[in-house]
Amino acid sequence: xxxxxxxxxxxxxxxxxxxxxxxxxxxxLGVDFDGTLAPIVPDPDDAAITDSARESxxxxxxxxxxxxxxxxxxxxxxxxxxxxxxxxxxxxxxxLEIRAGETTFVHPAAARQRAQIRHLSERLRDRLTDFPExxxxxxxxxxxxxxxxxxxxxxxxxxxxxxxxxxxxxVRVVPGKCVRELRPAVEWDKGAAMELLAEAAxxxxxxxxxxxxxxxEDGFRAVxxxxxxxxxxxxxxxxxxxxxxxxxxxxVPRLLDWxxxxxxxxxxxxxxxxxxxxxxxxxxxRDTEDEFVVRNE
Length: 297
Ligand SMILES: [Mg+2]
What we know:
- It is a single chain.
- By secondary structure, the chain is α/β, with parallel strands linked by helices.
- It folds into 2 domains: 11-107 and 188-296, Rossmann fold (3-Layer(aba) Sandwich), CATH 3.40.50.1000; 124-184, Alpha-Beta Plaits.
- It has 10 helices and 13 strands.
- The strands form 2 sheets. Strands 12-11-10-1-2-3-4-5-13 form a 9-stranded mixed sheet, with helices on both faces. Strands 6-7-9-8 form a 4-stranded antiparallel sheet, with helices on one face.
- The protein is globular.
- 44% of the residues are buried.
- Residues 32, 34-36, 211-213 line the site of magnesium ion (MG).
- Its cofactor is Mg(2+).
- Pathway: Glycan biosynthesis; trehalose biosynthesis.
- Removes the phosphate from trehalose 6-phosphate to produce free trehalose.
């Protein structure tokens, strides 16, 4: 049973986080985008990383013992455009596509079902023409039906579920806040992506994951018991698997800055001059057990 109570504050318990990281040789930091690096805004198209979050991440990415991964439900190219910091690892579409350096890795099942997702998105658009306020966003490996603000949100959501179920394919519908997501029917989520990155990271690196949403709970669970998980914002009635909370998005850069100071004290103050240095290389991901398809761009 998940705890119904709010976990202790991350910022007030930094000594405890330090103790959790003390035995490690480095840090694998996973951060979600919307609601974590960027404040939640009415139109997801307007979401932008805050200046303070950007500065903190740039700093962390320069540290030789810190690997930073941005992990999001957004399409990879969209996530990369919005964060736009050299040296980071990017995991888009809930980790179905991962970029390290110049190389993009795609989950093989997702790659196979890409055409199906596109086909379903097009047909679903035709099906939903009576609801012009609801849009279907094809994110290549997944698709999102946006129902925010619609008077017919429930009807559109159930029409989407029925349509996909009747289409008899390997696509599943995942409910979210004001959205229905079409995803390939494959066991993969932000937590699986964090586990993959942990396997690819240098030995002795300890993971820390920060996120704000229900899809981040997989990330929280993935870093335990050795790592640290921090939940941003209100904890839902269903509880959270996170060890700590950050009351609001604005508190995220404060934790990141502290992590940066911690890394300096704990390991070395010597930072790499070039921010384009890649801590986790494509070859590290190639060496993992999960066989992703490589997409070169
Ligand atoms: Mg989020």
